[in-house]
Specification:
Number of strands: 21
Radius of gyration: 22 Å
Shape: globular
CATH topology of the largest domain: Rossmann fold
Number of domains: 2
Number of helices: 16
Distance between the termini: 51 Å
CATH architecture of the largest domain: 3-Layer(aba) Sandwich
CATH class of the largest domain: Alpha Beta
Oligomer: single chain
Structural class: alpha/beta
Largest sheet: 8 strands, mixed
Protein backbone atom coordinates (compact mmCIF):
# COMPACT_ATOMS: atom_id res chain seq x y z
CA UNK A 1 0.00 0.00 0.00
CA UNK A 2 1.30 3.43 -0.91
CA UNK A 3 2.15 5.72 2.00
CA UNK A 4 0.84 9.28 1.91
CA UNK A 5 3.66 11.68 1.15
CA UNK A 6 4.28 14.94 2.91
CA UNK A 7 4.00 18.20 0.99
CA UNK A 8 7.76 18.58 1.20
CA UNK A 9 8.28 15.15 -0.36
CA UNK A 10 5.89 15.95 -3.21
CA UNK A 11 7.74 19.18 -3.99
CA UNK A 12 11.15 17.50 -3.77
CA UNK A 13 10.06 14.70 -6.13
CA UNK A 14 8.61 17.17 -8.64
CA UNK A 15 11.76 19.29 -8.68
CA UNK A 16 14.00 16.24 -9.06
CA UNK A 17 12.00 15.03 -12.06
CA UNK A 18 12.03 18.48 -13.68
CA UNK A 19 15.79 18.91 -13.23
CA UNK A 20 16.49 15.37 -14.50
CA UNK A 21 14.50 15.97 -17.69
CA UNK A 22 15.54 19.56 -18.38
CA UNK A 23 18.14 19.89 -21.11
CA UNK A 24 18.84 23.59 -20.57
CA UNK A 25 20.02 25.15 -17.32
CA UNK A 26 17.07 27.55 -17.24
CA UNK A 27 13.64 25.97 -16.78
CA UNK A 28 10.18 27.53 -16.84
CA UNK A 29 8.01 26.20 -14.02
CA UNK A 30 4.65 26.88 -12.41
CA UNK A 31 5.20 27.17 -8.66
CA UNK A 32 2.09 26.73 -6.52
CA UNK A 33 1.79 27.95 -2.95
CA UNK A 34 -0.29 26.54 -0.13
CA UNK A 35 -3.93 27.46 -0.47
CA UNK A 36 -5.69 29.63 2.13
CA UNK A 37 -6.96 27.38 4.90
CA UNK A 38 -10.40 29.00 4.77
CA UNK A 39 -10.80 28.00 1.11
CA UNK A 40 -9.92 24.39 1.87
CA UNK A 41 -12.30 24.14 4.82
CA UNK A 42 -15.15 25.77 2.91
CA UNK A 43 -14.82 23.40 -0.01
CA UNK A 44 -14.54 20.29 2.15
CA UNK A 45 -17.91 21.15 3.66
CA UNK A 46 -19.52 21.41 0.22
CA UNK A 47 -17.85 18.72 -1.82
CA UNK A 48 -17.68 15.59 0.32
CA UNK A 49 -21.27 14.42 0.09
CA UNK A 50 -21.54 15.23 -3.62
CA UNK A 51 -18.44 13.30 -4.72
CA UNK A 52 -19.11 10.29 -2.53
CA UNK A 53 -22.73 10.08 -3.65
CA UNK A 54 -21.61 10.11 -7.30
CA UNK A 55 -19.12 7.36 -6.62
CA UNK A 56 -21.83 5.07 -5.23
CA UNK A 57 -24.56 5.94 -7.76
CA UNK A 58 -25.87 2.96 -9.71
CA UNK A 59 -27.80 5.19 -12.12
CA UNK A 60 -27.71 8.86 -13.10
CA UNK A 61 -30.89 9.52 -11.09
CA UNK A 62 -29.11 8.52 -7.88
CA UNK A 63 -26.91 11.61 -8.23
CA UNK A 64 -29.75 13.89 -7.10
CA UNK A 65 -30.46 13.60 -3.40
CA UNK A 66 -33.35 15.49 -1.77
CA UNK A 67 -31.59 15.63 1.61
CA UNK A 68 -28.56 17.24 -0.04
CA UNK A 69 -30.71 19.83 -1.80
CA UNK A 70 -32.43 20.68 1.50
CA UNK A 71 -29.10 21.11 3.26
CA UNK A 72 -27.90 23.40 0.47
CA UNK A 73 -31.03 25.50 0.82
CA UNK A 74 -30.45 25.65 4.58
CA UNK A 75 -26.97 27.01 3.98
CA UNK A 76 -28.51 29.60 1.66
CA UNK A 77 -30.64 30.92 4.53
CA UNK A 78 -27.49 31.49 6.56
CA UNK A 79 -25.41 33.07 3.82
CA UNK A 80 -23.93 36.53 4.19
CA UNK A 81 -25.11 39.47 2.14
CA UNK A 82 -21.74 39.85 0.45
CA UNK A 83 -21.94 40.32 -3.31
CA UNK A 84 -20.30 38.09 -5.85
CA UNK A 85 -17.82 40.84 -6.69
CA UNK A 86 -16.83 41.24 -3.05
CA UNK A 87 -16.37 37.49 -2.62
CA UNK A 88 -14.11 37.29 -5.67
CA UNK A 89 -12.16 40.35 -4.47
CA UNK A 90 -11.67 38.75 -1.07
CA UNK A 91 -10.31 35.51 -2.57
CA UNK A 92 -8.03 37.45 -4.88
CA UNK A 93 -6.74 39.68 -2.08
CA UNK A 94 -5.86 36.69 0.08
CA UNK A 95 -4.14 34.85 -2.77
CA UNK A 96 -2.18 37.91 -3.87
CA UNK A 97 -1.05 38.61 -0.30
CA UNK A 98 0.67 35.23 -0.17
CA UNK A 99 2.05 35.58 -3.71
CA UNK A 100 3.45 39.05 -3.03
CA UNK A 101 5.19 37.71 0.04
CA UNK A 102 6.86 34.97 -2.00
CA UNK A 103 7.97 37.51 -4.60
CA UNK A 104 10.31 39.11 -2.08
CA UNK A 105 12.60 36.11 -2.46
CA UNK A 106 15.85 36.85 -4.31
CA UNK A 107 15.52 33.94 -6.77
CA UNK A 108 11.97 34.94 -7.58
CA UNK A 109 13.06 38.52 -8.22
CA UNK A 110 15.82 37.29 -10.53
CA UNK A 111 13.33 35.11 -12.37
CA UNK A 112 10.95 38.02 -12.90
CA UNK A 113 13.84 40.06 -14.25
CA UNK A 114 14.61 37.36 -16.82
CA UNK A 115 10.97 37.15 -17.90
CA UNK A 116 10.68 40.92 -18.12
CA UNK A 117 13.76 41.09 -20.34
CA UNK A 118 12.25 38.55 -22.71
CA UNK A 119 8.92 40.41 -22.74
CA UNK A 120 10.60 43.73 -23.55
CA UNK A 121 12.77 42.19 -26.28
CA UNK A 122 9.73 40.98 -28.24
CA UNK A 123 8.31 44.47 -28.66
CA UNK A 124 5.18 42.81 -30.03
CA UNK A 125 2.87 44.24 -27.40
CA UNK A 126 2.32 47.73 -26.14
CA UNK A 127 1.52 46.42 -22.67
CA UNK A 128 3.88 46.72 -19.74
CA UNK A 129 5.27 43.55 -18.20
CA UNK A 130 3.48 42.47 -15.06
CA UNK A 131 4.71 39.88 -12.57
CA UNK A 132 3.61 36.46 -13.78
CA UNK A 133 1.33 35.52 -10.90
CA UNK A 134 -2.05 33.78 -11.17
CA UNK A 135 -4.29 34.23 -8.19
CA UNK A 136 -6.99 31.61 -8.81
CA UNK A 137 -4.35 28.87 -8.89
CA UNK A 138 -2.19 30.46 -6.14
CA UNK A 139 0.76 30.13 -8.49
CA UNK A 140 3.45 31.98 -10.42
CA UNK A 141 5.53 31.38 -13.52
CA UNK A 142 9.25 31.38 -12.77
CA UNK A 143 12.33 30.98 -14.96
CA UNK A 144 14.98 29.48 -12.73
CA UNK A 145 18.33 27.76 -12.95
CA UNK A 146 18.33 24.17 -11.79
CA UNK A 147 20.21 25.20 -8.67
CA UNK A 148 17.75 27.99 -7.89
CA UNK A 149 14.86 25.61 -8.37
CA UNK A 150 16.38 22.99 -6.08
CA UNK A 151 16.92 25.46 -3.24
CA UNK A 152 13.61 27.33 -3.62
CA UNK A 153 11.54 25.13 -1.22
CA UNK A 154 13.94 25.88 1.61
CA UNK A 155 13.66 29.61 0.88
CA UNK A 156 9.85 29.59 0.46
CA UNK A 157 8.37 26.93 2.79
CA UNK A 158 4.82 27.65 1.60
CA UNK A 159 5.44 25.95 -1.79
CA UNK A 160 3.07 22.98 -2.16
CA UNK A 161 3.94 21.84 -5.69
CA UNK A 162 6.00 22.62 -8.78
CA UNK A 163 5.08 21.78 -12.40
CA UNK A 164 6.82 22.32 -15.71
CA UNK A 165 5.15 25.06 -17.76
CA UNK A 166 3.91 22.80 -20.55
CA UNK A 167 3.20 23.84 -24.10
CA UNK A 168 -0.34 22.96 -25.15
CA UNK A 169 -1.24 22.53 -28.80
CA UNK A 170 -4.55 23.46 -30.37
CA UNK A 171 -6.71 20.31 -30.04
CA UNK A 172 -6.69 18.21 -33.19
CA UNK A 173 -10.18 17.97 -34.63
CA UNK A 174 -11.36 16.06 -37.65
CA UNK A 175 -13.08 18.09 -40.35
CA UNK A 176 -16.09 16.01 -41.35
CA UNK A 177 -18.82 15.97 -43.91
CA UNK A 178 -22.22 16.78 -42.41
CA UNK A 179 -23.97 13.57 -41.42
CA UNK A 180 -26.50 12.23 -43.90
CA UNK A 181 -29.15 12.34 -41.19
CA UNK A 182 -28.42 16.06 -40.82
CA UNK A 183 -29.07 16.75 -44.46
CA UNK A 184 -32.19 14.63 -44.68
CA UNK A 185 -34.03 15.08 -41.40
CA UNK A 186 -32.90 18.22 -39.61
CA UNK A 187 -33.56 21.32 -41.65
CA UNK A 188 -33.89 23.88 -38.83
CA UNK A 189 -31.32 22.72 -36.25
CA UNK A 190 -28.07 20.76 -36.07
CA UNK A 191 -28.36 17.20 -34.80
CA UNK A 192 -26.66 18.14 -31.54
CA UNK A 193 -29.25 20.79 -30.70
CA UNK A 194 -32.03 18.28 -31.26
CA UNK A 195 -30.31 15.31 -29.58
CA UNK A 196 -29.65 17.26 -26.36
CA UNK A 197 -33.26 18.55 -26.31
CA UNK A 198 -32.09 22.17 -26.36
CA UNK A 199 -34.77 23.00 -28.92
CA UNK A 200 -37.36 21.63 -26.50
CA UNK A 201 -35.98 23.73 -23.65
CA UNK A 202 -36.41 26.87 -25.75
CA UNK A 203 -40.04 26.01 -26.43
CA UNK A 204 -41.12 24.67 -23.05
CA UNK A 205 -39.31 27.12 -20.78
CA UNK A 206 -38.44 30.02 -23.07
CA UNK A 207 -34.85 29.42 -22.00
CA UNK A 208 -32.27 30.55 -24.55
CA UNK A 209 -29.43 31.59 -22.25
CA UNK A 210 -30.74 35.07 -21.47
CA UNK A 211 -28.48 36.94 -19.07
CA UNK A 212 -25.81 34.22 -19.01
CA UNK A 213 -22.16 34.75 -19.96
CA UNK A 214 -19.94 31.82 -20.93
CA UNK A 215 -16.16 32.21 -20.96
CA UNK A 216 -14.51 30.45 -23.91
CA UNK A 217 -10.78 30.00 -23.28
CA UNK A 218 -9.53 28.93 -26.68
CA UNK A 219 -7.90 30.23 -29.88
CA UNK A 220 -10.00 33.41 -29.88
CA UNK A 221 -13.20 34.24 -31.74
CA UNK A 222 -14.36 35.93 -34.92
CA UNK A 223 -16.67 38.69 -33.59
CA UNK A 224 -17.97 39.54 -37.05
CA UNK A 225 -19.30 36.10 -37.84
CA UNK A 226 -23.06 36.49 -38.47
CA UNK A 227 -23.86 33.84 -35.87
CA UNK A 228 -21.82 35.61 -33.18
CA UNK A 229 -22.10 39.29 -34.07
CA UNK A 230 -22.95 41.38 -31.01
CA UNK A 231 -22.50 38.43 -28.65
CA UNK A 232 -18.87 38.96 -27.58
CA UNK A 233 -19.18 40.74 -24.23
CA UNK A 234 -15.52 40.50 -23.11
CA UNK A 235 -12.20 39.89 -24.85
CA UNK A 236 -8.59 39.38 -23.83
CA UNK A 237 -5.54 37.96 -25.59
CA UNK A 238 -2.70 36.47 -23.50
CA UNK A 239 0.96 35.92 -24.35
CA UNK A 240 2.92 32.81 -23.38
CA UNK A 241 3.69 34.28 -19.94
CA UNK A 242 0.06 35.01 -19.19
CA UNK A 243 0.28 38.76 -19.73
CA UNK A 244 -2.74 40.39 -21.37
CA UNK A 245 -1.60 41.92 -24.66
CA UNK A 246 -4.94 43.05 -26.10
CA UNK A 247 -8.47 43.77 -24.85
CA UNK A 248 -9.91 45.66 -27.83
CA UNK A 249 -9.55 43.60 -30.99
CA UNK A 250 -11.16 40.14 -30.86
CA UNK A 251 -9.83 37.68 -33.42
CA UNK A 252 -9.45 33.97 -33.95
CA UNK A 253 -5.91 32.72 -34.51
CA UNK A 254 -7.35 29.47 -35.84
CA UNK A 255 -10.91 28.18 -36.39
CA UNK A 256 -11.31 26.24 -33.18
CA UNK A 257 -12.49 29.02 -30.84
CA UNK A 258 -15.11 30.36 -33.24
CA UNK A 259 -16.48 26.84 -33.75
CA UNK A 260 -16.74 26.30 -29.99
CA UNK A 261 -18.36 29.70 -29.41
CA UNK A 262 -20.87 28.99 -32.18
CA UNK A 263 -21.98 25.75 -30.54
CA UNK A 264 -22.57 27.65 -27.29
CA UNK A 265 -24.29 30.82 -28.50
CA UNK A 266 -24.57 30.78 -32.30
CA UNK A 267 -27.77 31.76 -34.09
CA UNK A 268 -29.29 30.55 -37.36
CA UNK A 269 -27.43 32.63 -39.93
CA UNK A 270 -26.61 29.41 -41.79
CA UNK A 271 -30.29 28.50 -42.04
CA UNK A 272 -29.98 26.16 -39.06
CA UNK A 273 -29.72 26.90 -35.36
CA UNK A 274 -26.20 25.94 -34.33
CA UNK A 275 -25.96 27.24 -30.74
CA UNK A 276 -27.35 25.68 -27.57
CA UNK A 277 -28.04 29.05 -25.95
CA UNK A 278 -28.46 31.65 -28.72
CA UNK A 279 -29.15 34.52 -26.33
CA UNK A 280 -26.09 33.91 -24.15
CA UNK A 281 -23.00 36.11 -24.46
CA UNK A 282 -19.38 35.05 -24.83
CA UNK A 283 -16.33 36.20 -22.87
CA UNK A 284 -13.56 35.11 -25.22
CA UNK A 285 -10.03 34.63 -23.89
CA UNK A 286 -7.33 33.78 -26.43
CA UNK A 287 -5.06 31.42 -24.50
CA UNK A 288 -3.98 29.33 -27.51
CA UNK A 289 -2.33 30.60 -30.67
CA UNK A 290 -3.40 28.62 -33.71
CA UNK A 291 0.17 28.49 -35.03
CA UNK A 292 2.18 27.70 -31.90
CA UNK A 293 -0.31 26.61 -29.24
CA UNK A 294 -0.23 27.96 -25.71
CA UNK A 295 1.17 27.33 -22.25
CA UNK A 296 -0.16 26.40 -18.85
CA UNK A 297 0.66 29.97 -17.82
CA UNK A 298 -1.65 31.34 -20.52
CA UNK A 299 -4.51 29.08 -19.50
CA UNK A 300 -4.10 29.83 -15.79
CA UNK A 301 -4.03 33.57 -16.55
CA UNK A 302 -7.14 33.12 -18.68
CA UNK A 303 -8.92 31.47 -15.77
CA UNK A 304 -8.01 34.43 -13.54
CA UNK A 305 -9.47 36.78 -16.11
CA UNK A 306 -12.65 34.76 -16.61
CA UNK A 307 -13.41 34.66 -12.88
CA UNK A 308 -12.75 38.41 -12.63
CA UNK A 309 -15.29 39.01 -15.41
CA UNK A 310 -17.85 37.23 -13.20
CA UNK A 311 -18.87 34.84 -15.95
CA UNK A 312 -21.43 32.12 -15.26
CA UNK A 313 -19.63 29.18 -16.91
CA UNK A 314 -16.08 28.52 -18.15
CA UNK A 315 -15.61 26.34 -21.26
CA UNK A 316 -12.15 24.87 -21.90
CA UNK A 317 -12.01 22.70 -25.01
CA UNK A 318 -8.27 22.20 -24.56
CA UNK A 319 -5.84 20.09 -22.61
CA UNK A 320 -2.68 18.05 -22.43
CA UNK A 321 -2.39 14.24 -22.39
CA UNK A 322 -1.86 12.62 -18.98
CA UNK A 323 -0.95 8.92 -18.79
CA UNK A 324 -0.56 8.44 -15.04
CA UNK A 325 -3.46 7.34 -12.85
CA UNK A 326 -2.56 10.14 -10.43
CA UNK A 327 -3.14 13.53 -12.08
CA UNK A 328 -1.01 16.60 -11.31
CA UNK A 329 -2.84 19.40 -9.47
CA UNK A 330 -1.82 22.08 -11.98
CA UNK A 331 -5.39 23.33 -12.46
CA UNK A 332 -7.09 22.06 -9.31
CA UNK A 333 -6.62 25.27 -7.33
CA UNK A 334 -7.91 27.45 -10.18
CA UNK A 335 -10.98 25.24 -10.71
CA UNK A 336 -11.66 25.32 -6.96
CA UNK A 337 -11.42 29.13 -6.97
CA UNK A 338 -13.93 29.24 -9.83
CA UNK A 339 -16.27 26.92 -7.91
CA UNK A 340 -16.09 29.13 -4.84
CA UNK A 341 -17.04 32.03 -7.12
CA UNK A 342 -20.06 30.04 -8.34
CA UNK A 343 -18.61 29.19 -11.77
CA UNK A 344 -18.66 25.61 -13.10
CA UNK A 345 -15.65 24.71 -15.27
CA UNK A 346 -16.56 22.49 -18.23
CA UNK A 347 -13.62 20.71 -19.92
CA UNK A 348 -12.97 18.34 -22.81
CA UNK A 349 -11.73 14.90 -21.73
CA UNK A 350 -9.36 14.58 -24.71
CA UNK A 351 -9.13 12.98 -28.16
CA UNK A 352 -6.56 10.22 -27.59
CA UNK A 353 -9.04 7.38 -27.18
CA UNK A 354 -10.09 4.95 -24.49
CA UNK A 355 -7.97 4.74 -21.31
CA UNK A 356 -6.45 8.18 -21.89
CA UNK A 357 -7.44 11.61 -20.60
CA UNK A 358 -6.21 15.19 -20.76
CA UNK A 359 -5.63 17.80 -18.08
CA UNK A 360 -7.65 19.81 -16.94
CA UNK A 361 -10.53 17.61 -18.10
CA UNK A 362 -9.43 14.78 -15.81
CA UNK A 363 -9.32 16.99 -12.71
CA UNK A 364 -11.81 15.71 -10.15
CA UNK A 365 -13.45 19.14 -9.78
CA UNK A 366 -13.93 19.76 -13.51
CA UNK A 367 -17.18 18.81 -15.26
CA UNK A 368 -15.58 16.76 -18.01
CA UNK A 369 -17.17 15.78 -21.29
CA UNK A 370 -16.73 12.90 -23.72
CA UNK A 371 -18.06 12.69 -27.28
CA UNK A 372 -20.87 10.62 -28.82
CA UNK A 373 -22.09 10.29 -32.39
CA UNK A 374 -25.64 10.63 -33.71
CA UNK A 375 -26.37 7.00 -32.81
CA UNK A 376 -25.40 7.53 -29.15
CA UNK A 377 -22.17 5.57 -29.60
CA UNK A 378 -19.00 6.70 -27.88
CA UNK A 379 -16.67 8.26 -30.44
CA UNK A 380 -13.56 6.14 -30.92
CA UNK A 381 -11.29 9.12 -30.22
CA UNK A 382 -13.10 10.09 -27.00
CA UNK A 383 -11.01 9.60 -23.86
CA UNK A 384 -11.87 8.31 -20.41
CA UNK A 385 -10.41 6.24 -17.58
CA UNK A 386 -10.18 5.81 -13.81
CA UNK A 387 -7.88 8.15 -11.89
CA UNK A 388 -6.90 8.27 -8.24
CA UNK A 389 -6.13 10.97 -5.69
CA UNK A 390 -3.68 10.12 -2.91
CA UNK A 391 -3.19 13.59 -1.42
CA UNK A 392 -5.49 16.61 -1.53
CA UNK A 393 -5.88 19.95 0.20
CA UNK A 394 -9.58 19.93 -0.69
CA UNK A 395 -10.76 16.46 0.32
CA UNK A 396 -11.02 15.01 3.80
CA UNK A 397 -8.31 12.50 4.66
CA UNK A 398 -10.88 9.85 5.55
CA UNK A 399 -11.91 9.51 1.86
CA UNK A 400 -8.34 9.19 0.56
CA UNK A 401 -7.04 7.52 -1.50
CA UNK A 402 -10.03 8.24 -3.77
CA UNK A 403 -10.50 6.55 -7.18
CA UNK A 404 -12.77 8.43 -9.58
CA UNK A 405 -13.94 8.03 -13.18
CA UNK A 406 -13.83 10.57 -15.99
CA UNK A 407 -15.63 11.83 -18.04
CA UNK A 408 -18.74 12.92 -16.12
CA UNK A 409 -21.05 12.83 -19.14
CA UNK A 410 -21.06 12.83 -22.93
CA UNK A 411 -22.48 15.11 -25.62
CA UNK A 412 -22.58 15.35 -29.43
CA UNK A 413 -19.01 15.50 -30.71
CA UNK A 414 -19.04 13.88 -34.17
CA UNK A 415 -19.71 15.93 -37.32
CA UNK A 416 -20.86 18.97 -35.36
CA UNK A 417 -21.75 21.87 -37.66
CA UNK A 418 -20.78 25.29 -36.32
CA UNK A 419 -19.29 28.65 -37.24
CA UNK A 420 -15.73 29.22 -38.44
CA UNK A 421 -14.06 32.55 -39.31
CA UNK A 422 -14.91 34.26 -42.57
CA UNK A 423 -18.70 33.90 -42.49
CA UNK A 424 -18.37 30.17 -42.99
CA UNK A 425 -19.49 26.95 -41.31
CA UNK A 426 -17.89 23.55 -41.02
CA UNK A 427 -18.50 20.18 -39.35
CA UNK A 428 -15.79 19.22 -36.83
CA UNK A 429 -15.38 16.12 -34.67
CA UNK A 430 -13.71 16.06 -31.25
CA UNK A 431 -14.40 16.25 -27.54
CA UNK A 432 -13.78 19.96 -28.08
CA UNK A 433 -17.11 19.99 -29.92
CA UNK A 434 -18.93 18.01 -27.21
CA UNK A 435 -17.83 20.33 -24.39
CA UNK A 436 -19.62 23.51 -25.59
CA UNK A 437 -22.87 21.54 -25.81
CA UNK A 438 -22.62 21.07 -22.04
CA UNK A 439 -21.53 24.66 -21.36
CA UNK A 440 -24.45 25.87 -23.47
CA UNK A 441 -26.80 23.49 -21.64
CA UNK A 442 -25.74 25.04 -18.33
CA UNK A 443 -26.54 28.47 -19.78
CA UNK A 444 -30.04 27.20 -20.58
CA UNK A 445 -30.41 25.68 -17.10
CA UNK A 446 -29.43 28.96 -15.46
CA UNK A 447 -31.72 31.06 -17.64
CA UNK A 448 -34.70 28.75 -16.92
CA UNK A 449 -34.29 28.48 -13.14
CA UNK A 450 -33.43 30.39 -9.97
CA UNK A 451 -30.29 28.36 -9.19
CA UNK A 452 -28.08 31.46 -9.40
CA UNK A 453 -30.31 33.44 -7.09
CA UNK A 454 -31.20 30.76 -4.53
CA UNK A 455 -27.91 29.06 -3.73
CA UNK A 456 -24.55 30.12 -2.38
CA UNK A 457 -21.69 30.04 -4.87
CA UNK A 458 -20.14 26.64 -4.17
CA UNK A 459 -23.50 24.94 -3.61
CA UNK A 460 -24.62 26.46 -6.92
CA UNK A 461 -21.85 24.69 -8.84
CA UNK A 462 -22.40 21.27 -7.31
CA UNK A 463 -26.15 21.60 -7.80
CA UNK A 464 -25.56 22.39 -11.48
CA UNK A 465 -23.25 19.37 -11.74
CA UNK A 466 -25.90 17.18 -10.11
CA UNK A 467 -28.79 18.28 -12.34
CA UNK A 468 -26.75 18.02 -15.55
CA UNK A 469 -25.39 14.54 -14.78
CA UNK A 470 -28.52 13.12 -13.11
CA UNK A 471 -30.68 13.95 -16.13
CA UNK A 472 -28.60 12.20 -18.79
CA UNK A 473 -29.71 9.28 -20.92
CA UNK A 474 -27.80 6.33 -19.43
CA UNK A 475 -26.51 4.85 -22.68
CA UNK A 476 -23.50 2.94 -21.32
CA UNK A 477 -22.97 0.69 -18.34
CA UNK A 478 -25.20 1.17 -15.29
CA UNK A 479 -24.05 4.33 -13.52
CA UNK A 480 -20.82 6.09 -14.47
CA UNK A 481 -18.35 4.46 -16.85
CA UNK A 482 -15.20 5.63 -18.59
CA UNK A 483 -16.73 5.75 -22.09
CA UNK A 484 -19.90 7.80 -21.56
CA UNK A 485 -19.57 9.09 -18.01
CA UNK A 486 -23.08 8.93 -16.54
CA UNK A 487 -24.59 9.17 -20.02
CA UNK A 488 -25.70 11.47 -22.83
CA UNK A 489 -26.71 15.10 -22.18
CA UNK A 490 -30.43 15.97 -21.99
CA UNK A 491 -30.85 19.64 -21.03
CA UNK A 492 -34.66 19.66 -21.12
CA UNK A 493 -34.75 16.89 -18.52
CA UNK A 494 -32.12 18.74 -16.43
CA UNK A 495 -34.38 21.81 -16.33
CA UNK A 496 -37.39 19.59 -15.58
CA UNK A 497 -35.58 18.11 -12.57
CA UNK A 498 -34.53 21.56 -11.33
CA UNK A 499 -38.08 22.90 -11.60
CA UNK A 500 -39.47 19.81 -9.88
CA UNK A 501 -37.05 20.38 -6.99
CA UNK A 502 -38.12 23.97 -6.41
CA UNK A 503 -35.89 26.04 -8.70
CA UNK A 504 -38.61 27.12 -11.13
CA UNK A 505 -38.86 30.82 -12.02
CA UNK A 506 -42.36 31.08 -10.52
CA UNK A 507 -41.71 28.95 -7.42
Amino acid sequence: MRLLRTAQAIVADSIQQINDRAQADLVDVIVQLENPASKSAKLKAAVGESLLRRRMSLSPRDVIDSKSLKSRRAREKRKTKSTRSSQISAYKKKSMTDLKSAMKNASVKESMSRLESEHDSKKSAATKFKPTTYWTSQSMLLRLTKQELESLPQEIPSIRDVHINRTLSVPIVKVSKPLAVEMEDRLSTTWGIERTNAFGAWGVYGAEGQGVTVAVLDTGVDPEHPDLEGKISHWAEFDDMGNIVDTQNPRDSDQHGTHVAGTIAGGNASGRWIGMAPQATIAAGMVLDGAIGGTDAQVLAGMDWAVEQEVDVINMSLGGLILDAETPPTYTEAIVSAILAGIPVVCAIGNEGEQTTGLPGNDIFALSVGAIDNRNRAAGFSGGRTHIIFESDFLSQDVLPLPYIKPDLSAPGVSVLSSIPGDNWSAFSGTSMATPHVAGAIALLLSATTIRENLTADDRVFTIHDFVTASVDDVGESGQDSRFGFGSLDVLRAIDFAVRDGFGIDD
